Amino acid sequence: MSEFYIRPIEETDKDEWLELWSGKHGYLEFYKTILSPKTSDATFKRFFDSDYTMWCAVAISKQTQKLIGFTTYLTHLSTWSENNYMYLNDLFVKEDCRLKGVGRKLIEFVYRQAELKKSEKVYWCTQTFNHRAQILYNKVGIYENFVQYAKDPDYKIEE
């Protein structure tokens, strides 16, 4: 029997979500990233705003009724499909709750949402150093041989 359950995030989850998101030993710390409280607040608000196709699901401990993990996901158009794609944007499980199936169940929740929203594809990326997550990802997904790039913040467009 599972020691946790998955459900869509609720507005009353904000403080606990923020702790997992930006607190000590949280998601942003894992990725050595700092975001402004304004950015984190905007992210949380988007989960409940119908103008955005961004959502969040949380894993809840049955024993404590506290958040132990979350995933964020969004849909977008693709030039390669008539249907939307779903991007699994973030996935995080508290360190003391890892290796208990929480991450897998959060991913499966996103898979079900993709089916409901008729998204043709679910995909995500991770840091090359996140080997523990890659073990899970190789069980629930396939490696697609893509390399991700981002604009260099110092890049100047020539006039």
Structure description:
This protein is of the alpha+beta class and 159 residues long. It has a single domain, classed as Aminopeptidase, CATH 3.40.630.30. The chain has helices at 14-22, 27-30, 37-46, 102-116, 131-140; strands spanning 4-8, 54-61, 67-76, 85-93, 121-123. A five-stranded mixed β-sheet has the order 1-2-3-4-5, sandwiched between helices. The chain is globular, with a radius of gyration of 16 Å. The mean pLDDT is 95. One of its GO terms (cellular component) is cytoplasm.
Radius of gyration: 16 Å
Architecture, CATH level 2? 3-Layer(aba) Sandwich
**Proportion of β residues?**
15-25%
**Whole-number count of domains:** 1
What summary fits the major beta sheet?
5 strands, mixed
User: What order do the strands of the largest sheet run in, or round the barrel if closed?
Assistant: 1-2-3-4-5
Oligomer classification: single chain
Give the overall shape.
globular
CATH superfamily placement: Gcn5-related N-acetyltransferase (GNAT)
Count the helices. How many?
Answer: 5
Query: Approximately how much helix is present in the residues?
Result: 25-40%
For this structure, the CATH topology is Aminopeptidase
CATH class: Alpha Beta
Number of strands: 5
Low-confidence stretches: none
> Overall mean pLDDT score?
95
State the order of secondary-structure elements, H for helix, E for strand.
EHHHEEEHEH
Helix-strand category:
alpha+beta
Q: What distance lies between the first and last C-alpha atoms, to the nearest angstrom? A: 62 Å
